[in-house]
């Protein structure tokens, strides 16, 4: 079995002892809190390091993160933004999540890891920082035709949205063409890789103009009539 540093360094970064210690604390805290708050179904240590930590860090191979502003929508247990913050400490991270229990976990985690992260308890449609962030991310939140509406409005013009998806991403993209047009975004790159035999993709969307301020709509409207 590979050691934890070797697993993380597959993302192409030299993981320091301090960072490795933070990932250890992250894992222990996640498992402890998972007993009382539903944060993840993945609990085996190697699986967490590969399917959560390494998967998150792969974003750092797709885009320059140094001193960027990043919004993580529906972060859950902090993926992908917290692993990225550990490895890229100059990254300015904001997390928006609608469930207070998850925000409580993230507050506790950020304090234990000594990470400066802005945590917002809010649904995406109620968050007011539109056309603001260099980078927006989301992982396992919704199909792309719905996910784009929940994320692209917060990307500034000439910024980007990175979606982490599985092997059905092409099918999702085929259903998201109208959403891309409506939200003033286009796909500029797709980076694919494999983790434990699972096909993964990072889809990079560039935003070429400000989105209409009516987006995102409420979850009810998005579900009833997705873009």
Structure report:
This protein is α/β, with parallel strands linked by helices. The protein has a single domain (4-224), classed as Rossmann fold, CATH 3.40.50. It has helices at residues 4-8, 17-33, 45-57, 59-62, 81-87, 100-113, 144-151, 169-174, 177-182, 219-224; strands at 69-73, 92-97, 117-121, 133-139, 155-165, 185-195, 198-207. Strands 3-2-1-4-5-7-6 form a seven-stranded mixed beta sheet, with helices on both faces. Helix 2 (17-33) packs antiparallel against helix 6 (100-113) and helix 3 (45-57) crosses helix 5.
CATH class: Alpha Beta
Q: CATH fold name, please?
A: Rossmann fold
Which H/E pattern describes the elements? HHHHEHEHEEHEHHEEH
Mean pLDDT: 93
Distance between the termini: 45 Å
- Give the DSSP E fraction (strand runs of 2 or more residues): 15-25%
Q: Classify the helix fraction into a percent range.
A: 25-40%
Concise description?
The protein is α/β, with parallel strands linked by helices and about 230 residues long.
Topology:
Blueprint: H1 4-8, H2 17-33, H3 45-57, H4 59-62, E1 69-73, H5 81-87, E2 92-97, H6 100-113, E3 117-121, E4 133-139, H7 144-151, E5 155-165, H8 169-174, H9 177-182, E6 185-195, E7 198-207, H10 219-224
Parallel strand pairs: 1-2, 1-4, 2-3, 4-5
Antiparallel strand pairs: 5-7, 6-7
Helix pairs in contact: 2-6, 3-5
Short descriptors:
7 strands, Rossmann fold, seven-stranded mixed sheet, 38% helix, 227 residues, alpha/beta
């Amino acid at each position: 079995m590979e050691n934890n540093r070797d697993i993380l360094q597959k993302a192409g970064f030299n993981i320091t002892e301090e960072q490795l210690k933070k990932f250890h604390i992250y894992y222990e805290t996640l498992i402890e809190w998972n007993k009382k708050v539903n944060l993840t179904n993945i609990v085996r240590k190697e699986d967490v390091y590969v399917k959560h930590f390494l998967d998150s860090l792969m974003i750092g191979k797709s885009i320059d993160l140094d001193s960027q502003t990043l919004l993580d929508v529906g972060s859950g247990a902090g993926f992908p933004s917290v692993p990225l913050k550990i490895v890229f400490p100059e990254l300015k991270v904001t997390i928006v999540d609608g469930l207070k229990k998850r925000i409580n976990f993230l507050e506790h985690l950020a304090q234990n890891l000594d990470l400066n992260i802005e945590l917002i308890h809010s649904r995406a449609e109620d968050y007011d920082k539109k056309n603001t962030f260099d980078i927006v991310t989301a992982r396992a939140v919704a199909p792309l035709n719905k996910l784009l509406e929940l994320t692209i409005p917060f990307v500034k013009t000439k910024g980007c949205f990175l979606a982490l998806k599985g092997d059905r991403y092409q099918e999702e993209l085929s259903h998201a063409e109208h959403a891309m047009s409506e939200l003033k975004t286009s796909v500029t790159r797709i980076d694919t890789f494999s983790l434990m035999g699972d096909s993964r993709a990072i889809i990079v969307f560039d935003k070429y103009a400000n989105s209409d301020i009516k987006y995102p709509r409420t979850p009810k409207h998005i579900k009833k009539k997705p873009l």
